[in-house]
Predict the structure of DNA-processing protein DprA.
Amino acid sequence: MPPSERDILIALHHLPGLGPQKWLTLQHTIQSPADLLDWPTDKLIKSLGQNAAQLFALWRAGEQGWLGARLNALARWLESDGHHIVTQFDELYPPLLKEINGPLLLYVAGDPLVLNLPQIAVVGARKATAAGAKTAHHFSQALASGGYGITSGLALGIDTQAHLGALAGAGKTVAVLGCGLDKIYPARNLALAAQIIEQGGALVSEFALGVKPEPGHFPRRNRIISGLSVATLVIEAAMKSGSLTTARQALEQNREVFVIPGSIYSEVSEGCHWLIREGATLVYKPEQIAEQLGAQLALFDLPEPAIEVNDELVPKHKKLLQLIGRERVEFEALLALSHFNLSELHQALGELEMLGLIASSEQGIERLFAGS
Amino acid sequence: MPPSERDILIALHHLPGLGPQKWLTLQHTIQSPADLLDWPTDKLIKSLGQNAAQLFALWRAGEQGWLGARLNALARWLESDGHHIVTQFDELYPPLLKEINGPLLLYVAGDPLVLNLPQIAVVGARKATAAGAKTAHHFSQALASGGYGITSGLALGIDTQAHLGALAGAGKTVAVLGCGLDKIYPARNLALAAQIIEQGGALVSEFALGVKPEPGHFPRRNRIISGLSVATLVIEAAMKSGSLTTARQALEQNREVFVIPGSIYSEVSEGCHWLIREGATLVYKPEQIAEQLGAQLALFDLPEPAIEVNDELVPKHKKLLQLIGRERVEFEALLALSHFNLSELHQALGELEMLGLIASSEQGIERLFAGS
């Protein structure tokens, strides 16, 4: 049986030097990755380079070789629970990441659905101040319990507090790594990584298994962090720091950037202040982010949070959840929109509330996305 | 000899209840304040109110009365060196203050010319943090030595540091009071007030002699602080503080507002952060203010700093200073603009540099406004 398009893509991804840019160029010359199975070797060499072309030619000829061995190792890894590959051919590939021409594929450990949850990247200095660490935890907890995924880089300092805050908020969190998922870095955060998966989040990387963390990987890691997220929150960032790069990428990607200010005498606030002067939004309360993004998400018609609707729900419930959407809705509006009668609506809302899927207050009815 | 228009304005200013608003209304009904000398008493009562009208009627009849006694006391005060009144009829009345419908007149102790210097208001909390005090001093010193007047309110905390910083920068500073100039408040700053005058600055108030500081006066005082200034710099300000009011007034007056950020856990930074979210400009270096205002001043065609050109200057020097203006100019441009020949220009620039009026560098030639 010939390899599928997806298999070919995965094989291509393992070839040295085939990043998203080269892939884009390649895409213009082929209808499908399967075309490459028929290309003469000299054409392959012209497109992929000598080294990559030879590895690919060997593999398509059915020989084990270097590429075959790596793909076999990958196949074994994929046999474990919660190990996934999400390619640009897969529906699960996050649209926000596609928008910025993200990597051909992502390695995922944990629940890949979480990548489609509206996420906020929380980034900052490894050498965070105590106040910065507290802020990262507090904001991430509040935003996660409000239904946002928290995306960060599993580094020490702000990243760690962001993940911990999200977990404390009973929310989901995504850690993007600058290495293969079998080489988790830093080792001090191995337990945190496990807990992230445990609680329904995910570890993500564009780097193949076995790839070690290297300084050159972190800009690419940062690009995924901001690319996955509707917004980036920068807590503490020195000038010329990785966090600042992430934030600049977010601005270039036309994503919202929120920034926590600090003392003008603190080095780890200088990058933050620079960003605010460049147009990023100063925030000092988590609500300010939620408020602004509420409007934003509606504006850009972004996908609903990818939290699965309970299968036990009857169509009536599903219809109501759809109507409520991401915005708080008044009871009267819901009555008109749903075409339910008064007692039908009361009963259905009561059931949804019992299931922890909505909350009602005098201000109206809203969906609860976190931990639901 | 009948009283002059100016005398009548000063008399009117002393009448209870005649603020800028009432004066504006009155102006629509008269050609000149002298008209009021001929108005029948019932017409005066209708415009000024019973009490004020009777005081005014007595005074215009040449009787001493309450108003006459106060004007005599004022006349005695004006006999002292450096005591002035600047009315809306005087050329010295600051145009920026006129623009926002400032008070009918200002009492000035010190050099009234300083009110026409481009000024930056520096305001903030009385209960400043050590970092805030340091920032106020540092920024005021840098801006004052760059030729800007520093305007503040002589209060403890940020205000005091702003005045002290300006003095340390060998610059001029203006203290606007919420009381009569013979009732300087707080008493702890009496020596500072004297030094402000000593160094060519001024104390200013819209309140008549003998008026004590009262809480209700400070919003009016703050309005003058921002109204005199091309920009307001807020260092530390709690929500609902007077400094925040000053900054909001500055924004309403379409003046630039610069803000120093701080910790999100500090109460005296909350107002600052609020202002930044409202559109004020975050700054963390004095140069950022100077840069932005340089462009601003050129744009609005505001008066050049009112530092007098040395009388010993020959016309050639004056012409060059005019050409250099507020912006750094390249030597070649100056050569073309001045129509001087090469050696003439070199000599004149050398003389101006010796006089401390300009500085040349590889980037060009610029005027030095401070202490020149």
